[in-house]
Amino acid sequence: MHTTTNRKQPGTTEARASSRVATAIAILLLLSSVARGQILLELDLSEPDQAKRWRPTHDVGELERRFDGLHVPVTGPDPYLRGPVVDLPGGIPLWLHLEVEPDRSGSVQIFWWGVGQHPTEERSVRVPVRRGEVNRRRVSIPALGEGTALRFDPPSTAKACRLKRIAFERRLVHPEPEWEVPALRPARSGDQAVVSGAIAGSLDRAGLSLEVEEQLIAVLAGPLPIVWMDDDETLHEVDTKAGRTIVRNRADANVVDQDWRDDRGTAWHLRRILTAGPIAGSLALSWELTANQDRELL
Prior knowledge:
Blueprint: E1 2-4, E2 11-18, E3 24-31, E4 39-44, H1 48-51, E5 55-58, E6 64-66, E7 69-73, E8 80-86, E9 94-102, E10 106-113, E11 124-129, E12 135-141, E13 148-153, E14 160-170, E15 194-196, E16 199-204, E17 207-212, E18 215-221, E19 226-229, E20 235-238, E21 244-249, E22 253-261, E23 267-276, E24 283-291, E25 296-297
Parallel strand pairs: 1-24
Antiparallel strand pairs: 2-3, 4-14, 5-8, 6-7, 7-14, 8-13, 9-12, 9-14, 10-11, 10-13, 15-16, 16-17, 17-18, 19-20, 19-25, 21-22, 22-23, 23-24
């Protein structure tokens, strides 16, 4: 079983559970954290002063600055180039912005390290990219500081890659919401549960419960807290316990529609649908969250 949500810029977390009858369930939650911050440092590789600060180091040919970025020819299976040493304010969590255009899909990697340190996997982040298009990515990284060295690794399968922009943005960190512990309850019996092989799933306002051979194995809580931030960086939480809920449960699908209004009058709608999965013994849970105004979600 997998779950998806339409919130911005998703990140992923995966959990797996298996029953004694060897039925495996994979739960995939795509979450996002979108917040406005301050750009602390920007490297525009179309600018001559920025482009000349990068040096080919390994399996990379001669670099060429162009109007749309730094052209990086890849000559071997382990390409990377050294960048400048930059100064960033310490103790501030960061967003890393990256704009890159490779000729092959894969992943790029950014390394950072301080004085007396070396590039390691722990001091890096990998970012998936698609070929033939400008990939604009934003990923969270820890606080850095003064004297931070940079390294860029293009996709190892690429023949060429264009590095356009690297920027560092202040990342706002907010307290984690207080998560309500869901009450354990069995899946509904009869035609109100969605059954696939040995698995029975039940979806309602409170959340989702799963049974295997009539034994409760997992509970997924109902709508997670919805928090958004306004232009003044004030947080607003949607009261998901209030509002209207419509539950339509059939043997082939459980559908839950919920509507709320927040303290600024924004209308929110959440639809969750539980159906049998594409293979026997699997379930599919989809989430769609919409609002009638532009909102930046946390």
